[in-house]
Amino acid sequence: FMQQITRVRALEGEIARTIQSIAGVKAARVHIVMSERANFRRDEQQPSASVVIRYAGVDAEKSAQSIRHLVAAAVPGLSADKVTVLDSNGNLLAAGDDTSNTSAARTLGVEQTVEAQIGDNIRRALTPYLGPDNFRASVKADVNTDTRQTEETIFDPESRVERSVQSVRTNEASNQKQASTPTSVEQNLPETQTTTTDGPQSSSQNDRKEEITNYEINSKKIATVSNGYSVTKMSIAVVVNQDRLKTILGKDATPEQIAKRVADIQKMVASATGFDDKRGDVIDVSAV
């Protein structure tokens, strides 16, 4: 029994060290539950595993899928859908075989990562000016993690190349001549020979030429697959210690001076967080 426990712990440690070698993974812990055999149990219990990682980046869900297959390949009889992966904040990154859960967890994880990064940007911008304990910031980010695939075909009419030429030429000519006999009394006399004269003449000539040219136009097909994320809206609230502003401005600071300094802080926060008014972002900075 002790040998079994020692072997499992050694396997957990080796797998954890391998996971830590993946880019973005700062730390990892692995827990494995091996299958148990019982005499009176019809179905054998399948092995399972859980992994907790501390990840730095926004692609934790992608790495979680790789970690599941890594652990499943290292443990005999373990399937990837029996491996659960969480991050150090308790967010579920991968579990079971339900892709919808994975997608929802990915969206939640990306939102939390983006919010944490924006919060860090605010702290780095305001701490040298206000101090670390004189403000509090809250960030809510809405992200879109849908996979988008775009296909387009571009034609370049300026770079056309002559592919084939078909020419048809027709030449038609016709002449018509009609003889006419003059009408007179002599025609009614016997043994009288009438003379004929030349009638009207007509001639026509028709020349027709037709040419068909086929061109080959260069075209370019572009297929783009986007599997990242985009921030659709961002809401930021910052509360500043008013006493700290009075200390900076002086004890005799007027409310107008404090309001102007709050407006300056709001501009600083907007620059540090990538505020976009067209996107519908909201920033509220107040001094209390």
Explain what this protein looks like in three dimensions.
- With 288 residues, the chain is α/β, with parallel strands linked by helices.
- The chain has 3 domains: 101 residues, 2-Layer Sandwich (GMP Synthetase, Chain A, domain 3); 101 residues, Alpha-Beta Plaits (2-Layer Sandwich); 57 residues, no CATH class.
- The protein is built from 5 helices and 9 strands, in the order H-E-E-H-E-E-H-E-E-E-E-H-H-E.
- The strands form 3 sheets. A 4-stranded mixed sheet has the order 1-2-3-4. Strands 5-8-9 form a 3-stranded mixed sheet. Strands 6-7 form a two-stranded antiparallel ribbon.
- Strand 3 and strand 4 form a beta hairpin.
- Helix 3 crosses helix 5.
- The chain is flat.
- 16% of the residues are buried.
- The model has no long low-confidence stretch (mean pLDDT 81).
Summary?
This protein has 288 residues and is of the alpha/beta class.
Biggest beta-sheet profile: 4 strands, mixed
Number of helices: 5
| Rg calc | 44 Å
Q: Kindly state the number of beta strands.
A: 9
What does the oligomeric state look like here?
single chain
CATH architectural name of the largest domain:
2-Layer Sandwich
Mean of residue pLDDT values = 81
So what's the overall shape? flat
- Relevant CATH superfamily of the largest domain: ANL, C-terminal domain
Write down the secondary-structure element order. HEEHEEHEEEEHHE
Summed up, the domain count is: 3
Fraction of helical residues: 25-40%
Keywords:
288 residues, 5 helices, 3 domains, single chain, three-stranded mixed sheet, flat, four-stranded mixed sheet, Alpha-Beta Plaits, GMP Synthetase, Chain A, domain 3, alpha/beta
